[in-house]
Amino acid sequence: MAMAEVAIPAPRTQLSFRNVFLGLSALTVVMVSLRVYQGAFAWETGLDSFHPDFATYWMSVFYGAIVLGPIITVAVWAYIWKTRDRNPTAMTAREEVRRIFNQFVWFSSYTFSLYWAASFFPEGDATWHQTVIRDASLTPSHIIMFYIAFPTYIMLGVGSYLHAMTRLPHMYNLNRFSFPFLAAVAAPILMLPNVGFNEWGHTFWVMEELFVAPLHWGFVVLGWAAIAFGGITAQLITRVVDVTRGGCKPGQLAPHDA
Questions:
Q1: What was the pLDDT predicted at 126?
Q2: C-alpha distances in angstroms, 34 versus 31, 118, 186?
């Protein structure tokens, strides 16, 4: 009796845009939903911070963000650290390439969320304050931007950095670290102290919401960290070439990295 043939699954394709698409789609749904919520309720319930409707429609969002945000962030970072690789030199070349493409998923999600937090919503915030004139620090645009959009990119940025430092040996072997990666993650986080200074300045100086105002120069300086994104991409692509062409063993440094 002839033995039944067993189908052997095809090797998994390393370069897949499915996870990138899913990550960016999820972020798009969240950010667009926030913008739709702003459009639906900001003018009707967000003009007077002392009105009961403001507490219903906006303070509830604020309290939900400051409670759920830290919980989700700690859970994501803890998961990445808990599942870190304890023996990176034992990985195969295929596994390392797979991790590098996973890193692209994390990095693309971080940069996309940073766009929403540092470009789209701030533009709307400046327009809002030029039109309405703020009566409190907690405004509809501030609640969405500072307490949801900013924490989202911080969570993804640090998560992306942790993923690289715990799964890509060429970035952390021999006490090494990627300076472009560190700059690309740390500089946007430093926008938060500038946010506090910005709010203090607007409160005491009553400045107009112009991007060219000296009060906003700190945001521009920290935004220059975007230059480091090219360095990170170059590091990842170079590593893929080294591993696939046999320039180094998986999990070990290449000669030009030593």
A1: 79
A2: 5, 15, 25
